[in-house]
Write a structure and sequence with these properties.
With 307 residues, this protein is α/β, with parallel strands linked by helices. The protein has a single domain, classed as Ribonuclease Z/Hydroxyacylglutathione hydrolase-like (Metallo-beta-lactamase, Chain A, 4-Layer Sandwich). The chain has helices spanning 2-9, 13-16, 93-101, 123-127, 139-146, 204-220, 258-271; strands spanning 42-48, 51-56, 66-71, 75-79, 107-111, 132-134, 156-159, 164-169, 178-182, 187-191, 198-201, 225-228, 255-256, 278-279, 284-287.
Length: 307
């Protein structure tokens, strides 16, 4: 009894505190019907203490990514810097982040789940911001910044001050893809590797291994949700909006759970080494075939256009 008590006391409080799950918005902005003006460019939702979710509206860019701002005591971490708005749209992302950070004296780290263009559009603007570091997007830049000693098997940490975020390599959708784990909320920010939509896979073996590693991590840590970067599925199981849809009134909710990661891992394990399309109620896996030389984007079928 005494031994057990001493053992329990030796565990830091933060390690045994149950995570406080994030709450997603009851309704996300999801575009406007054809012909209507795009008035609300973005939505800010406080999902939990120190965690804000910013969604770009579908009518700003049909990728409509979700960005995450996590505040610590010394540092703020912004995951992704958004997609490029249509020409002429003055998109207030930096101003929004400034407002959310407010009077707190925090440095800002802008990191990315990965370097596809719908996740890095405002890097240039953050580079001009004071007290801000923007992490590069190549595998070398990512490995160097986070000081990974092993890739892709290793882990790294970002200490925001009172909030340590674990960084996990997750190549497959893209070579430098990362997942970020926030132990306070039990959230895995999973970028384009796991979200309710079309999960395109460029490197099939790497993706299978990444998902297996992520599952191992998630089973060893308290995980309450997987928060990805897009929503493309409809609330009706198995149905998906075509990519580039500008108005999605019946979207799937944003967060997925551990059961979805298990489904994904089971499907990839069953499929084996041969890439194939996999359809489940809440996501679709699609091997990505790069366009052959000379094939212009406009001639590509819509399902191969996702980058
Ligand atoms: Zn991507
Ligand atoms: Zn994306």
């Amino acid at each position: 009894m005494k031994t057990i008590l001493l053992f329990a006391l030796s565990i830091p409080l933060a390690a045994i505190a149950a995570p406080e799950p994030l709450k997603e918005a009851s309704q996300w902005i999801h575009g406007v019907p054809a012909g209507q003006a795009c008035v609300q460019l973005l939505q800010v939702h406080q999902a939990g203490p120190g965690v804000f979710i910013i969604r770009q509206n579908k009518c700003v860019n049909t990728e409509a990514p979700f960005l995450y701002l996590i505040l610590g005591e010394q540092k703020a971490l912004l995951l992704d810097s958004g997609a490029k708005p249509d020409a002429g749209v003055d998109f207030p992302l930096v101003e929004t982040v400034n407002r959310l950070i407010g009077e707190r004296k925090l440095s800002l780290l802008v990191a990315h789940t990965h370097g596809h263009r719908d996740h890095i559009a405002f890097d240039y603007a953050f580079r001009a911001r004071a007290n801000t570091t923007v992490v590069g997007t190549t595998p070398d830049a990512v490995k160097t910044h986070f000081q990974f000693t092993q890739w892709p098997e290793g882990e790294a940490q970002v200490d925001l001050g009172g909030r340590k975020i674990t960084v996990l390599p997750l190549p497959g959708h893209e070579a430098a893809h990362l997942a970020f784990y926030d132990p306070h909320s039990g959230t895995v920010f999973s970028g384009d590797s796991l979200y309710p939509g079309m999960l395109t896979v460029r490197d099939w073996p790497a993706y299978r291994q990444s998902i297996a590693r992520l599952l191992k991590f998630a089973e060893a840590h308290p995980v309450t949700a997987f928060a990805g970067a897009h929503v493309e599925m409809m609330s009706k199981p198995y149905d998906m909006y075509p990519l580039d849809t500008a108005y999605q009134p019946q979207e799937h909710k944003l967060f997925l759970g551990l059961e979805h990661l298990r489904q994904l891992n089971d499907a990839l394990t069953a499929q084996g080494e041969k890439p194939a399309r996999i359809e489940r109620a809440d996501f679709i896996v699609e091997p990505y075939a790069p366009p052959s030389a000379g094939l212009v984007l406009g001639l590509m079928p819509w399902w191969k256009r996702r980058i």
